[in-house]
Amino acid sequence: MSQKITVAVAGAGGRMGREVVKMVLEDPELQLVAAIGNTSTGAVDAGSLVGKPDTGVIVLSNLADALSVSRPDVLVDFTNPKSAMPNTETALAYGVRPVIGTTGFTPEQIVELDKICRDKGIGGLIAPNFSIGAILMMKFSAMAAKYFPHVEIIEYHGDQKLDAPSGTSIKTAELISQARQELRQGNPNEEEVIEGARGGYYDGFRIHSVRLPGVFAQQEVVFGAFGQTLKIRHDSFDRAGYMPGVNTAIKKIMSVTGMVYGFEHFLD
Known about the structure:
The chain is built from 7 helices and 12 strands. The chain is an alpha/beta fold. The chain has a 7-stranded parallel sheet, sandwiched between helices. β10 and β11 (228-236) form a beta hairpin. α5 (132-145) runs parallel beside α6 (167-179). The two termini are 19 Å apart.
């Protein structure tokens, strides 16, 4: 690559944001030009967030100001569902390609963002999960659903996760639904003695969200048939495991037009 891809990181002081900052600083094909985060402690060099030498990139609190000054090629955003849509709109307003690892977008919002991207001739990505292992788990689940239509999803996250079910489980459910007809599972006369005990309803099957301290991110897709079950499970133990996917997304988004939903579209 003859020219470095310039990158801004929103949520740079967060746990995922720091991993992104570190990954960008360590890749010679990428250049960190802006970091957006909490500045209540005063001026902070982005490199200090990850124990790196002075980078000259000061963490700013306002996304629009940061993008206006730095004019990056790509914005990587791992903030929160509440900020996801306005941050993406701000990036596109400045002609910056958004790579979003935050969930909470509606289908209507994705369609709207896709139109903006195409009007500007640039690409963007909204990905519930950047883990290659998680993407394979989703793909395998969609394959299995053709033969095992009875399925339930159990997803596990820490007790500080804000959304339930997770974006990964919703994306998995969407892929499963594309591979099977809607099938309302369970006994037609079943009764929830405690409301919500059967989990969230999606296209005939259920999604169960577990939130506990000490848990990072796991998902299990359980298929049932007469005389047998099939379980497809993925476990994440460290945020660094998402960085190869984020790195790939930053580089591939440069040659994409339109808003892409799902990192699986970037896997060869």
